[in-house]
Automatic annotation (TrEMBL):
The lineage of its organism: Bacteria, Pseudomonadati, Pseudomonadota, Gammaproteobacteria, Lysobacterales. This is DnaJ-like protein. It comes from Thermomonas haemolytica. InterPro entries: DjlA_DnaK_co-chaperone, DnaJ_domain, J_dom_sf. Signal peptide: none annotated. Residues 61-125 form the J domain.
């Protein structure tokens, strides 16, 4: 669904600023360009998320994400998870550049996947 409010607000703003119907027309044109993303840069497509490697390397990968060994306690893993999520959570970089937001989202997915993998391994053990 396309936006419509840019044209409406542009028309009103143009008319009020220039106090002439031509100002409304100029505002309508600017609003049309805004609604159709003429002012935004084209964003490159996102890279696919990195899948964890299969087998036992999956376990090593999960522990390496947190920077702890396989002999770490549950409390240490929870602390590492909270520390990394506080650092890389996408809401923390909401106002940053799109590239940084994409990296934070990818890192948060990786952290969550590693945490879920370790939790699953420890439940089954």
């Amino acid at each position: 669904m396309r936006r419509w409010y840019g044209q409406f607000l542009g028309f009103i703003a143009g008319w009020l600023l220039l106090r002439h119907p031509v100002g409304g027309f100029i505002g309508l044109l600017v609003g049309y360009l805004f609604d159709h993303d003429a002012f935004s840069r084209r964003r490159p497509p996102r890279p696919p998320p990195a899948d964890p490697p299969p087998g036992d390397a999956d376990v090593d990968w999960a522990y390496r994400v947190f920077g702890v060994g396989a002999d770490a306690s549950d409390a240490e893993i929870d602390r590492a998870y909270r520390r990394l999520m506080a650092q890389y959570h996408p809401d923390r970089v909401a106002g940053a550049a799109p590239e940084l937001r994409a990296l934070a989202e990818q890192k948060a997915r990786e952290i969550n996947a590693a945490y879920d993998r370790i939790r699953k391994l420890r439940r089954n053990a």
